Amino acid sequence: RRRELIATLRPLPGVRPTLCQLQASGIALAVLSDSESPAAELRQRLDKLGIDSCFQAVYSSRDLGQAKPAALGYQTALAAIRLPAHQVAFVGHDADELAMPTVAFNYDPEVQADRYLERFEELLDLVNRGGLLAAAS
CA 83, CA 33: separation in Å to the nearest integer? Predict the structure, then answer.
């Protein structure tokens, strides 16, 4: 079943063009994933989805030896994009992962976040009007 899911993997609506626009705007993007797969394999999947080039770095909990919300993953991703935590937002779906200024997308009903996206494209507006940094204050 896992192989079938990987073979049919596709981005949710709006994800690819939004990531491309963010990257083209100079926004630093990285992936931090709790995964059984190493980062190199995650990169291959992102490439098949047509979004690998959007990310400066990809990290897997398998490679790091720790899962979110352990600080190591966040610190490693921050170091890769060379930004302090107060200038970064983590976009995720799991309540345990959302430990910094947060943007929830495709989230469970009980998830608490600073901002909620109904459509991934809304992330562009949030970044462009400074809403992520305001959430961190």
Answer: 19
